[in-house]
Amino acid sequence: MGKWRRLWQPGRLLFWQMLVFNMLSSACAWAMNTLPLNGIGLALIGTLGVLNVAFGMLAAWMLVKEEPK
Questions:
Q1: Backbone φ, ψ for residue 37 (5° rounding)
Q2: Is the predicted pLDDT of residue 64 greater than 70, yes or no?
Q3: What are phi and psi of 12, to 5 degrees?
Q4: Where are the alpha helices (DSSP H) in 1-69?
Q5: For the residues 47-69, what does the mean pLDDT come to?
Q6: Do residues 24 and 16 lie in contact, with contact meaning Cβ atoms separated by under 8 Å?
Q7: Does the structure show a pLDDT above 70 at 69?
Q8: Residue 10: CB partners within 8 Å, gap ≥ 6?
Q9: Phi, psi of 38 (to 5 degrees)
Q10: Residue 37 CB coordination number (10 Å)
Q11: Which of 12, 13, 19, 25 could form a disulfide with 52 if both were Cys (CB 3.0 to 4.6 A apart)?
Q12: Nearest alpha-carbon partner for 3 in 67, 52, 59, 46
């Protein structure tokens, strides 16, 4: 449980960026499920959602990797 506690660092900008990326990927998933999008729209929103997940995971990894400041 030790390294997982490093995720909670509200004093760092990276923590808030991780939260925003996760919220944006959830919003993309919601949009893909509820809005009537064509193939191009689904591809664009899906790509944006996957990128947000990747950036959120990268931010989380960077927070866990470093000692809290």
A1: -100, 145
A2: yes
A3: -110, 140
A4: 13-34, 39-65
A5: 91
A6: no
A7: no
A8: 16
A9: -85, -175
A10: 15
A11: 25
A12: 67
